[in-house]
Amino acid sequence: MLKLLAIDRFTLLLFLMVILASFFPVSGQGAQAFSVLTTVAIAILFFLHGAKLSRQAVVEGIMHWKLHSLVFVFTFALFPLLGWLAKPILVPLLGQELYWGFLFMCFLPSTVQSSIAFTSVARGNVAAAVCSASFSNIIGMFITPVLVAFCILGQSQHGFDPTQSIIQITLLLLVPFILGQLLRPYVFPLMKKMPKVVKVFDQGSILMVVYGAFSSAVVAGLWTQVSWTTLLLLILACSVLLTVVMLLALYIPRAMGFNPADQRTIFFCASKKTLASGVPMAQILFIGQPLGMIVLPIMIFHQIQLMVCGIIANYWSKKAEPQLQE
């Protein structure tokens, strides 16, 4: 219970990267070299993600099309719609750049690891969670750039073409993921023997991107543009968005007749946004834009969703058995 509720070490390291970048930002040629190292680390990360995904779990979960369709609608339709409807309120409060980051967060796919972990704790349909979360991330590599192109960059960069971004994301994220799947029989046994090495790449690549993003943002004057009041308003906006989506993800599956295990799966897969895929995507999509402002909303939303889902998953784990027997 304490592990689910507490701010974990990775989150503390994320904040440490922000602090480090604020006082010791990397710039110039150092920033270019650091960017290359970060790109390599991200490619390795998604190679390992591909190697971890069980094909048997995919086969078991892939036939549950009704569940996957509902998660897809939440992730790539409801979230963007809510983000777009919030524009008249958030732009005056947060400013244009932070609102772009908030909207970009709404365009992102669901998480993989935490969706599966929380579904497992709550005794939901884990096989369907694996398939749904993985499908969300794969299809998100194509849908997210298109949404960003038309709803964000189309307003700031005339004639922006998402094709090049999709190609870059495919090469950086999808190709390593597929290679990991193909080489899974050889790589996965080694991963099981070296879980700490896998965790280093899993978290280290994200920390590197966050440090690089905030370094460039600090050099460009990030903290002269974001006040404590604005930061608190952003936290409030993320909390309200998560609350609305979670309430809908709780009651809509019930109304549609899903069993309790599937309801839990939909709840956790449909209500979250990925930091692991979101930060690398932002690095590709928002070249020349204030990247620190863009990734700040997803960093805040990420921590809020982990804490809230931890509480709910722990609560459901205690009452799951009686409900599943009904």
TrEMBL record:
Q: Which Pfam families match?
A: SBF_like
User: Membrane-spanning regions, if any?
Assistant: 7-24, 30-48, 69-86, 98-119, 126-153, 165-183, 204-224, 230-253, 265-288, 294-316
A GO cellular component annotation here is: plasma membrane
> Keywords on this record?
Membrane, Transmembrane, Transmembrane helix
Q: Does the keyword Membrane apply?
A: yes
Q: Which Gene3D superfamilies does its entry note?
A: 1.20.1530.20
Protein name, please? Bile acid:sodium symporter
State the organism of origin.
Answer: Acinetobacter lanii
